[in-house]
Amino acid sequence: xxxxxxxxxxxxxxxxxxxxxxxxxxxxxxxxxxxxxxxxxxxxxxxxxxxxxxxxxxxxxxxxxxxxxxxxxxxxxxxxxxxxxxxxxxxxxxxxxxxxxxxxxxxxxxxxxxxxxxxxxxxxxxxxxxxxxxxxxxxxxxxxxxxxxxxxxxxxxxxxxxxxxxxxxxxxxxxxxxxxxxxxxxxxxxxxxxxxxxxxxxxxxxxxxxxxxxxxxxxxxxxxxxxxxxxxxxxxxxxxxxxxxxxxxxxxxxxxxxxxxxxxxxxxxxxxxxxxxxxxxxxxxxxxxxxxxxxxxxxxxxxxxxxxxxxxxxxxxxxxxxxxxxxxxxxxxxxxxxxxxxxxxxxxxxxxxxxxxxxxxxxxxxxxxxxxxxxxxxxxxxxxxxx
Length: 387
Hints:
Helix content is about 35%, strand content about 15%. The chain is built from 15 helices and 15 strands. Strand 1, helix 2 (about 70-80) and strand 2 form a beta-alpha-beta unit. Helix 1 (about 1-20) packs across helix 10 (about 265-270) and helix 7 packs across helix 8.
């Protein structure tokens, strides 16, 4: 048994490192490009070069695998150059890095996207300049559209709505468990010390679902937030993971019974011989990462070429297969990405309808008592929980 679990640990860890750039541990080297232009450290470029901030595995030079050379192919086909490509592993690292210097393009999740829009650090995008934009799933496009009330509309929209991002990759969470040890109940998953939850303030929304506040779990009143946090506070020694390697180790060594994960991680564990299953829950939470355009970009020509490149089926197909996440463009669900799309239920409305996609709290919350704690309150409470 010990030998089998050691083998499973090695196999699953190897799969994560070799087959998923975004999930690779920090010890995995990321190829460093040799830029053809030296970037100015305090300003974005206007000479045909781009400075980009994204998650590891979302944009690669091909040093890890020739199949994921997005950047090299982009430069060759468009004539634009990537002067700087900064990559991070976690949402916290992304949130910190985006404030250190200006970027032309950032791939942001819902919490960061909301902050960048509110702080005017990004500018609206003209969808008419992004070829293939209409191929993006409409529900994801709507998530990056801010309704307006006056003024001329975004080109092609006929309204005053403003589009702030081009959806790229998305995923959702599920709770996996070891059926040899536990029956598999959501209530037990939150009450057990042998559970691993994702280390993110947005995990509070999953606790809200477990307490029955499932209408808008990312837009909670103070009372609803109190119920969700009380559920989380009930267990003091729970694991909060930042790297999927932690999940692999936990199930392979037998220290975990439950974990919050994505379907892709479940599949890797199963392929490694670990008999984990997913809880059958009525609803779950998810997120969308989108490309956003920096507010200070003086010449957006190459930025729009990048947005078009990353919207196309080929780029999203490679990204989905490499990162283990679903593409926002359904046309990417062929070849290498077909199995990933099937895993997440792309093109199956009933599967996607059960996913509540994240917004930055408080979103559009209108509590009867007039108080809806914002993301800063969620973050402050979360820091106290996991310290």
